[in-house]
Amino acid sequence: MLFQSLDDQEEVDAVFVNAILTAIQQRNLERIWAKPVLDRVGLIIEIFNAHAHTKEAKLQAELAALMYKKSRLVRVRGTDGSQTFGQFGEAEVVSARGRASSGNGGFVGGAGETELQLQRRRIADRRLRLLSQIKEARRTRLLHRAGRKKREGLEGHSSATIAVVGYTNAGKSTLTSALSKTALYCNERLFATLDPTLKSVHLPSGKKVLLSDTVGFISDLPIELVNAFQSTLEEVVEADLLLHVVDSTAPNIEEHRSTVFHVLNQIGVPEEKLQNMIEVWNKIDYEEEEVEDSHYLDDGEEEEEAELIDGLKAEETFDESEATLVEDEIQNQDDDSVEWLLSEDENVDDIELWKVPEVAKVDAAQNKGPHVRVSALTGVGLKELLYLIDEKLKSETIVERSDLQERKWRPPRNDDENVRLIPLEDRV
Ligand SMILES: Nc1nc2c(ncn2[C@@H]2O[C@H](COP(=O)(O)OP(=O)(O)OP(=O)(O)O)[C@@H](O)[C@H]2O)c(=O)[nH]1
Ligand SMILES: [Mg+2]
């Protein structure tokens, strides 16, 4: 269906399908099209990998890839034999059962099964190793954080932390950067930010806060993938206040909002913190213009698929140095890293997707924004946003001081409800 609209199939290097494919679907499509097929999760993992900069993020991205590939039948081999996809090599489809039967004429057992067990063990070993490395990297980060808090304590002040969350491409980095007047890494590419980045900002009250830019969320992610980033998302759970940046130009804004709420619920953000979250509608400067590039992965129309494939190609040529880095990374992996990955079952099609929490947690409808409308690009509304942050934090100050040891967020006291927020229009 897709190829019929393309003049020359030869020019297609790989096919991206904007859905989550089962292992069998992916294999069948690759057979029919004779091209590597990448599904939504596969693509996201590729992007995660390319954009991970710190050691912790790289480890987390590798873990996510490992967990995803564990559920795949497809083994992917680079030109040099290393595990990869697309740009460095080509995908080869192997079924453990198929191999066993082609070798022995039988259905089960034999060499195929033994190799499968070996692969499973390798994956399990690698996973444990990654988990322990992630734990170590996390420990280092926590030590740094504790050191920072201690220094601040000695200096007689402690900064509240604010995590900037939102769907991918909402403008979190641009907003964080605009607020802190520091050039963070902003980019049109999806998931430009994988590492939490702390920037200090002075509020109108003079109070200093730390803004933490975080990884973008996206809908329909397998739970394992987000679990792999748990450590990064920890910044979000522990923040004193959350800013939810929403791209007000996104066609499916409600879906983006609810995805963000689901993710926040899922990673254990306390309900009170969700209720207190500031919803910032960004890109208000962007009105009449046509959306030229498709940044969104959730519209399933064919022409968008074609655009995304273009994007995939562009990604290959876009930043060769980054690609080389990733390749080096892969080549430098230990020998027992995941070179051949096979799933244990051909019928794996039960990837666990985000589930709407059964308990009535705070959802997108309960916390209906926008609380403030801004343009991170032109600076409109930023002043109002800073005032709003100041107000929100003021109502929590007493709680925060009395609870320094535990460093857990507590709901504002009843008295605080009487603290009236100054209407935005009166503030300027
Ligand atoms: N018109 C307009 N574009 C904006 C605004 N804020 C951000 N953008 C653009 O939106 C794109 C994404 O911005 P980022 O700040 O990288 O988005 P992000 O939410 O950090 O994305 P990830 O880190 O990838 O999840 C970039 O092309 C920005 O220039 C805005 O206020 N107006
Ligand atoms: Mg970003």
UniProtKB/TrEMBL annotation:
Query: Residue ranges of the Hflx-type G domain?
Result: 160-397
Q: Where is this region: Disordered?
A: 409-428
Under CDD domains, the record lists: HflX (cd01878)
Q: Record keywords: Nucleotide-binding included?
A: yes
**Origin, by domain of life?**
Eukaryota
Q: Which GO terms describe its molecular function?
A: GTP binding; metal ion binding
Record-annotated residues binding GTP? 166-173, 191-195, 213-216, 282-285, 375-377
Binding site residues for Mg(2+): 173, 193
| Cofactor(s) for this UniProt protein | Mg(2+)
UniProt keywords (A-Z) are: GTP-binding, Magnesium, Metal-binding, Nucleotide-binding
- Its protein name is GTP-binding protein
